[in-house]
């Protein structure tokens, strides 16, 4: 978990739902955030770099890397739908948490650049709607 998010949620008497004190609920947030870095963040970051950032900087892009990341993102979004959002409103239950905040930050990059790999999942996997 990002230490800055933990500090903000702990130092400012933030509501418990952001990073619950109850260990079982906290473990759910930790589970997603551990998974997030190697999945949601990694694929969207690769796509964003290849499609937006590198062209802005004049750095050559790698179309094969972009296509691979799109395909992997599709699998990641399927996992989000089937593992985390199948029976609940938010990623870790019925209350918003830091896990949702992390996911929203990544998914908003995709929302600003509507890649084909994200479009089929927009209405079902994006936790932005309830927010």
Distance between the termini: 21 Å
> Can you tell me the overall shape?
globular
Overall CATH class: Mainly Alpha
| Unreliable stretches covering 5 or more consecutive residues | none
Largest sheet entry: none
Tally of strands: 0
> Which architecture per CATH?
Up-down Bundle
Class by alpha and beta content = mainly alpha
Count of helical stretches: 6
Radius of gyration: 16 Å
Approximate strand percentage: under 5%
Averaged pLDDT, please? 82
The percent of residues in helical segments reads 55-70%
Count of all domains: 1
Within the CATH hierarchy, at the fold level, what is the topology?
Glutathione S-transferase Yfyf (Class Pi), Chain A, domain 2
Protein name: GST C-terminal domain-containing protein
GO molecular function, one term: glutathione transferase activity
Domain GST C-terminal: 22-131
